[in-house]
Design a protein that fits this description.
- The structure is a single chain.
- This protein is mainly α.
- The chain is about 80% helix and about 0% strand.
- It has a two-stranded antiparallel sheet with strand order 1-2.
- About 45% of the residues are buried.
- It is found in: Membrane.
- It comes from Entomospira nematocerorum.
- This is AEC family transporter.
C-alpha cells in the first residue's frame, strides 16, 4: 500500500512529468519535422554544434554560480571521486563481462559501455529536472568522464600513446574550460577578492550572478537553449537513420541492454551499499545514474570509425542505444523518483 502511494506521488509530481513529456515531445517534433523535410538533414549536426559550443559551456559555468556549504561541497567531491572509481571499475568489469567476444570486439564494447554521451544526452535532461544543482553535480561528474574519454578511450581505439593534439582538444574544449572556471569560482569564492553589494553583503568578484548581471543574463539565455536544441537535434538525427540492419545485430542489443539498463542499475546498487556506511544524497545518486543511462559517447564512436576499430559495431550500437535510451530514460526518471519518495538517500 505504501508503494502504491509512492507511485501516486511520483505520477502527480508535475515537475517530473513535465520534464519527461517535454523531452519526448520535442524529440518527436525534431523527428517529424525532419521526416517531412521542414528541417534540413544537416540540422541535427548544426544544432549539436551550437549546444556543445555555447549552450552547454554557459550552462556548466552558471551552475557553479551558487553559495557553497559544507554538505554540498562534500557531495560534490563524492560524485567527483565516484565518477573516477565507477568508470574506472567498468574498464575492468566490462572486459570480463564481454569475455565471449573477440579481443577487438571486447575492447570496443568496453569503451562504448564505459563512456556514454553524458554531456549532450544527459545534462539537458538533468538540468530540466533537477535545476542548477543537478547541472553542478553533472559537471563535476563529467570531469572524470572527459579525462577517460580523451586518454584511455583514445588509446584503446588508436593503439597509440596519448597525442598532443588529443590533449589539446581536451584542454581547450569549451565545456572543460567553463567547468573548471566555474569549479574554481565555486570552491574558492570565500578566498577571492570580495565585492560589497547594495544590501551590505559581500561576494566574490567572480560571482557574476551577483556582481555582473549584465554578463550573467546573456549566459542564462544561452544556457536555456541547451535542452530544447539538444532534444530537437536527437529527433532530427533519429529521422535520418535506418534501424533495419542495425536492429539485426545481436551484439548491438546485448550492448544496449548492458549500457542503458544493467550498468545504471549496478551503479544504484553500489551507491545503496556505500550509503549504508556514509550518507549519500539523492541528487548524487540520481545524477550519476542518469549520466550512465546514455548511448555511447559520439567522440568514442568517432574514434572507432577514424581508426577502423569495429566501426560497424560502434555505429550500429550507437543507433540502437540512442533509440532505446529515448524510451528508457523516462522510465529511469520515474524509478529514481520512487527511490526518492522511499527516503533511502538523504536530501
Amino acid at each position: 500500500m505504501e508503494l502504491f502511494r509512492i507511485f501516486q506521488d511520483v505520477l502527480s509530481n508535475q515537475a517530473v512529468i513535465s520534464a519527461v513529456t517535454s523531452s519526448i515531445f520535442i524529440i518527436l517534433l525534431g523527428f517529424f519535422l525532419t521526416k517531412r523535410g521542414t528541417f534540413k538533414p544537416s540540422l541535427g549536426k548544426d544544432l549539436s554544434t551550437v549546444v556543445l559550443t555555447v549552450g552547454l559551456p554557459a550552462l556548466s559555468f552558471n551552475a557553479f554560480m551558487s553559495d557553497i556549504n559544507p554538505e554540498t561541497f562534500r557531495q560534490g567531491m563524492m560524485i567527483l571521486i565516484w565518477g573516477f572509481v565507477f568508470q574506472g571499475a567498468l574498464i575492468f568489469l566490462m572486459k570480463a563481462y564481454y569475455f565471449r567476444y573477440t579481443k577487438d570486439e571486447r575492447q570496443a564494447l568496453t569503451v562504448l559501455t564505459t563512456l556514454g554521451s553524458t554531456t549532450f544526452f544527459a545534462v539537458p535532461i538533468i538540468g530540466a529536472i533537477y535545476g542548477a544543482k543537478g547541472v553542478l553535480f553533472a559537471s563535476i561528474f563529467n570531469i572524470s568522464y572527459r579525462i577517460y574519454l580523451y586518454s584511455w578511450g583514445y588509446i584503446s581505439f588508436s593503439g597509440l600513446k596519448m597525442s598532443k593534439d588529443n590533449l589539446k582538444t581536451m584542454l581547450l574544449n569549451p565545456i572543460i574550460i567553463a567547468t573548471f572556471l566555474g569549479l574554481i569560482v565555486w570552491i574558492f569564492q570565500g578566498f577571492l577578492p570580495q565585492v560589497t553589494l547594495r544590501d551590505g553583503s559581500q561576494v566574490a568578484f567572480a560571482r557574476i550572478d551577483k556582481t555582473a548581471v549584465w554578463l550573467y543574463r546573456p549566459m542564462t539565455f544561452l544556457a536555456s537553449i541547451c535542452s530544447p536544441l539538444a532534444w530537437l537535434s536527437i529527433g532530427a538525427t533519429l529521422a535520418q537513420i535506418s534501424l533495419n540492419e542495425a536492429s539485426r545485430d545481436r551484439t548491438s542489443w546485448v550492448y544496449t541492454i548492458t549500457k542503458i539498463v544493467v550498468v545504471p542499475m549496478f551503479g544504484i546498487i553500489a551507491l545503496f551499499v556505500i550509503n549504508l556506511f556514509t550518507p549519500i544524497s539523492f541528487m548524487t545518486m540520481a545524477v550519476s545514474t542518469l549520466m550512465m543511462t546514455t548511448p555511447p559517447a559520439t567522440v568514442a564512436v568517432a574514434y572507432a570509425i577514424k581508426f577502423d576499430r569495429q566501426s560497424l559495431l560502434a555505429s550500429n550500437a550507437s543507433l540502437i542505444a540512442t533509440v532505446f535510451a529515448v524510451i528508457w530514460v523516462p522510465l529511469t526518471i520515474f524509478l529514481l523518483e520512487v527511490i526518492n519518495q522511499m527516503g533511502i538517500f538523504v536530501q
